[in-house]
Amino acid sequence: MTSPTPPEAAPERRIALHEAEFAADPHAAYERMRKEFGPFVPVDLIPDVPATLVIGYAQARRILNDPLRFPADPTVWEQSVPETCPVRPMMESRPNALRSAGPAHTRYRSANTAAIDGVDQHELRTLVEQVADGTIAEFRETEGADLLTQYAWPIAFRVLSALLGCPDEVGRRIADGMAKIFEGVDAASGNQILTEAVADLVALRRRQPGDDITSRLLAHSSGLDDMEMLHQLVTLYGAGIEPLTNLITNTVLRILTDDQFSGDLHAGGSSVREALDSVLYTDPPLANFCISYPPHPVDVDGFLLPAHQPVLISMTACNNDPALGDQRTASNRAHLSWSTGPHACPARPHAYLIAETAITHLLDALPEMDLATAAQDLVWRPGPFHRALTALPVQFPAAASV
User: Fold this and answer.
1) Domain of 113: which CATH number?
2) Is residue 6 part of a domain?
3) Residues 60, 66, 71, CA angle at the centre, nearest 5°?
4) Is 0.70 topped by the overall pTM?
5) With a cut of 70, which residues of the chain have pLDDT below it?
6) 299 phi/psi in degrees, rounded to 5
7) Is residue 3 part of a domain?
8) Domain assignment of residue 144, given as a range
9) Which of 45, 43, 46, 40 is CA-nearest to residue 63?
10) Which residues contact 101 (CB under 8 A, 6 or more apart)?
11) Assigned domain for 9 exists
12) pLDDT (tens digit, 9 = 90+) per residue, 311-360?
């Protein structure tokens, strides 16, 4: 008599982060995840690319501050992922601070911090105001605009290119490559476009150094070679264009639709700062990121995180963890949207200044601006990492024209 064949184990249920349904209402999805899984959620970044999403605030902070058990090095993981994988360019090994650990991370981090700290905050504010003036002038004589493509993106692109000493033609190629990578559509092509354009920028600044972040990186005592320089700049562009665009756009949307902010579009700087912090708590531009790759299985609060499988922090879900209770107030700025620990964003004050200045300038220029469509009709772009609109159409009366 033969023994019965044992039943196959039921496949693990995973939540798809890449679908339009998730993008349309992530907060409801996080609430369902919390009820079903607790602080650690099995997810698919795209089909057949599994990961663990951390949605517990306390657990996230422990992981972000434990680089020994949760290093950011994806070397082993990427061996199991084809080069054509759409999310690979966002996650793969690069000789930069974001994807390294130990002495290598210290070396890259020190170079980046020194180069970024060389930016004068007063000059940066003046630069943003000048760019904002020129950008608004391009659509102000009309009675409407798409603030994502006609304001937020040009602000991020033009300001970052100026800070990096990047000519417009090279910057446009870099922005095109970054957009393809963030979308996860034709990401391999985007990676190639980005790599070639950044290499051209490095070569230019080696020949003609200036007062810019690229030149300061080249002059740093860490002695970065061309390949290392390429990947430092890829990281800076990746952290600068898409997330900053979405931070500006998401905050303007909040101001236009939330009663707490929409009553007075002449709001002072404090109200814009409050709106920014509100968005950084509830709809940060990078919703799920801060990726680590445990080299061994790690038990956290009774949940076993697999070795060499990505662990992502959901900044959105962690910021809104009910376990925080009364601590969940935007005013204390305890959110994780800039990350924390050794990989915390080194350009936080610069990004904050750019977004606040751009938004304040826009509200001053177009005080009677309003949405050109119902808020519920706005479309959020699918994708496992970002919280991003496809467009933010607004209208303003002809009287606002000059």
Assistant:
1) 1.10.630.10
2) no
3) 100
4) yes
5) 1-11, 182-185, 263-270, 327-333, 398-402
6) -90, 120
7) no
8) 15-400
9) 40
10) 67, 71, 72, 73
11) no
12) 999 999 999 999 988 765 555 567 899 999 999 999 999 999 999 999 99
Q: How many domains, in total, are found in the chain?
A: 1
Residue 333, token pair as written in the block: 């700025």
Which tens digit of pLDDT belongs to each residue from 356-400? 999 999 999 998 899 999 999 999 999 999 999 999 999 998 644
Could you tell me how far CA 193 lies from the centroid of its own chain?
Answer: 20
Helices (H), 65-164: 75-78, 88-91, 102-117, 121-137, 147, 153-164
User: Of 240, 218, 235, nearest to 114 (Cα)?
Assistant: 218
Judge whether 267 lies within some domain: yes
Among the listed residues 329, 310, 309, the one whose alpha carbon sits nearest the alpha carbon of residue 319? 329
- Residue 87 Cα distances to 179, 184, 186, 241, angstroms: 12, 6, 10, 18
Is residue 73 within 8 A of residue 101, CB to CB? The reply is: yes
Structure tokens that stand for 378 in this block: 């706005």
Question: And the tokens for 318?
Answer: 């962690």
The residue to which tokens 């798409």 are assigned: 146
Strand 311-314 with 49-54, pairing = parallel
